[in-house]
Structures are given as structure tokens and as C-alpha cells.
Specification:
The complex is a heterodimer of chains A (about 60) and B (about 140).
Chain A: E1 2-3, H1 5-11, H2 16-23, H3 27-34, H4 42-51, H5 56-59, E2 60-61
Antiparallel strand pairs in A: 1-2
Helix pairs in contact in A: 2-3
Chain B: H1 2-33, H2 39-67, H3 75-107, H4 113-138
Classes of the chains: A mainly alpha (about 60), B mainly alpha (about 140).
Chain lengths: ~60, ~140
């Protein structure tokens, strides 16, 4: 799974820590998400999408 | 809601510090009251050290995150805890059987009940600690 978290975070000039604070997660979780090494819960995915003003399906790219 | 959660997290940290202090105090009192340390006492030392080191690390890590305004624990770490608990449980079962079996094979002698308990606590504790560390650093 690929994500656009890093790209959108840069657009809003947001650090990993800012985003983590916004969504109530730890910074390491954001790091793993950006690397595609962690599948978040639907709630966390929704919170991140909301924090980055986007939709879940635009934020996470699933590859077959 | 957020403040309540933060208060709860701070309370958990304070409780952790209190329990660790009590363990250290009890351990120090026990060692000072017993000038001669037997084998059984020697085995209990690593158990206590594991409890102290693990709790100190967890308290430090959580306090550091709360200070930055981040949660002490999030969904990823909760999952890591559940997975580590599973491995700790498996290790506890196997060590209960295995420690006695190993003692019979190596020393031709059954272990005392207290030593089996010590082995179970020690092995499952170490397994839990290592598995938690591994899963919290691994990501998925």
C-alpha cells in the first residue's frame, strides 16, 4: 500500500509530529504509515484524511 | 474528553512510578535483611530487574510523548501489546513444561515448584518484553 501522506503533509507545511498530534497518534505511527509499513484502522485513516483535507481513497493507494 | 484522557494517562504514569518504587524498596529491604543469598534468591534478581527496567522504559517513553502533546499509546502500540501478550502466553506454557523437562534431562532432578514459577515468570517476561519491542519497532 502506498500513501500520499508525505506529499500532502508537505503541502500544508505540517511536520510528522504536528500530524500525529492532530490525529491522536504517535509520531512513529506516522513514519510507518508514510513508508507503507502499517495499515491503519478505518478511524485513523479517516482522521488523517480529514487533517489533510482529502478523502481516504485519495490518500491511500492500494496495489494488487 | 482530551483532558480527561491526558489526566488518565498521567495517573497511569504516576501509578507506574509508585509501583516501581515499591518494588525497588521491597527488593532493597529483602537483600539487606538477608546477608546470605541462596540460589532461589539469585533467580529472583533478574525477574525484579526485568520488571524495573521494563517499567522504567515504558514510563520514560510515555512521559516523553505526553510532554510533546502526543498520546502515550496509540492503536499501533495497542496491537503490538496484544501480539506480545500472545507470545508471552505461549512462552509461559512452554516454559512451565520445558524448564522441568530440561532439568530432568540435564540434572536428572525435578525442579522445585518455586523454581518452575520463577522460570515461567522470567521466560514469559523476557519474551513479552522482546516481542513488544520488536513489534513496536516493526510497524505492521
Amino acid at each position: 500500500m502506498k500513501t500520499r501522506i508525505k506529499e500532502l503533509r508537505a503541502r500544508y507545511d505540517m511536520t510528522q509530529e504536528d500530524l500525529a498530534r492532530n490525529v491522536g497518534a504517535r509520531r512513529e505511527t506516522i513514519v510507518f504509515l508514510e513508508k507503507g509499513k502499517y495499515n491503519p484502522s478505518l478511524k485513523l485513516a479517516h482522521d488523517i484524511a480529514k487533517a489533510l483535507n482529502t478523502k481516504i481513497d485519495e490518500l491511500f493507494i492500494f496495489e494488487e | 474528553m482530551l483532558n480527561e484522557t491526558k489526566t488518565g494517562q498521567k495517573l497511569v504514569i504516576l501509578m507506574g512510578i509508585g509501583i516501581t518504587a515499591l518494588v525497588v524498596g521491597t527488593f532493597a529491604y529483602y537483600i539487606l535483611a538477608n546477608p546470605t543469598i541462596e540460589l532461589f534468591d539469585m533467580i529472583s534478581i533478574p525477574i525484579i530487574l526485568i520488571i524495573i527496567l521494563t517499567s522504567s522504559y515504558i514510563i520514560y517513553d510515555r512521559a516523553k510523548n505526553i510532554k510533546k502533546g502526543l498520546p502515550a499509546q496509540d492503536e499501533r502500540l495497542k496491537i503490538a501489546g496484544y501480539k506480545a501478550g500472545y507470545y508471552g502466553f505461549i512462552a509461559a506454557i512452554w516454559s512451565a513444561v520445558g524448564s522441568n523437562m530440561l532439568s530432568i534431562i540435564l540434572f536428572d532432578e525435578e525442579l522445585r515448584g518455586g523454581l518452575v514459577t520463577a522460570a515461567v515468570v522470567l521466560i514469559s517476561g523476557i519474551t513479552f518484553m522482546l516481542a513488544y519491542y520488536y513489534f513496536s519497532r516493526k510497524g505492521e
